[in-house]
Amino acid sequence: MSQEEEKVTYFTLEEVKKHDGATDDRVWIIYKDIVYDVSSYLEEHPGGSELITEYAGKDATKAFDDFGHSSDAKKMLKAYKIGEVVEEERKGKIKKKEKPSVVNVNPAKPQTRSCFSIITCGLCG
Ligand code: HEM
Predict the structure, then answer these.
(1) For residue 31, which of 97, 82, 104 has the smallest C-alpha distance?
(2) Residue with CA at minimum distance from ligand 1 atom 36
(3) Would you call 50 helix, strand, or coil by DSSP?
(4) Phi/psi of residue 15, nearest 5 degrees
(5) Ligand 1 centre from 15 Cα, in Å?
(6) pLDDT tens, residue order, the chain (125 aa)
(7) Which of 45, 61, 65, when mutated, tests ligand 1's pocket best, judged by the most ligand atoms within 8 Å of its CB?
(8) What are the chain's domains?
């Protein structure tokens, strides 16, 4: 798989709505502001096609999450991505790949004096 640097296509909710399985036989769903064409997956869905077509042309985020799909199911979803919801109509923010938070580690200052030197200096001084 090539590194995802392809151009993103943006869809309005109005456009997504047209793909409700009836108008043009395509079933699009929205999951977390990303648009998926899951038409070819319907028959494979372990929960049956109807559970998905119920959300055809709509936002299926809550339904998808309420079932508690496995991480495998979430990975599978990626294969059907066709675009994203236009910014003005998004419900939330699309998660960017989280960068690992950089912990500001101050390298421990080298111990310049050992207990021993402190004691000896104390004794000398
Ligand atoms: C659109 C709303 C969706 C709803 C309401 C829904 C609901 C469900 C339900 C109820 C099951 C359990 C079936 C059973 O155990 O008999 C299930 C399983 C599953 N669904 Fe969905 N589903 C949806 C969309 C999707 C989509 C788009 C995908 C992947 C492209 C997907 C992938 C899976 C997978 C892989 C399982 C097997 C269990 C798992 O791995 O989590 N589902 N789904």
Answers:
(1) 82
(2) 46
(3) helix
(4) -65, -40
(5) 24
(6) 455 567 999 999 999 999 999 988 999 999 999 999 999 999 999 999 999 999 999 999 999 999 999 999 999 999 999 999 999 999 986 666 655 555 555 655 555 555 445 455 455 44
(7) 45
(8) 10-89 (3.10.120.10)
Q: Longest Cα pair distance anywhere in the chain, in angstroms?
A: 93
Q: Integer distance in angstroms from the first to the last C-alpha of the chain?
A: 70
Distance from residue 110's CA to the centre of ligand 1 (Å):
56
User: How many angstroms does the Cα of residue 115 sit away from the middle of ligand 1?
Assistant: 64
CA of 27 relative to ligand 1 center, distance in Å:
15
- Using alpha carbons, list the distances in angstroms from residue 82 to 28, 41, 89, 118: 9, 14, 17, 68
Per-residue b/e over 70-98, b at no fewer than 16 CB within 10 Å? eeeeeeebeebebbbbeeeeeeeeeeeee
Per-residue tokens: 57: 């042309």
For the chain, the C-alpha Rg in angstroms (whole number) is: 27
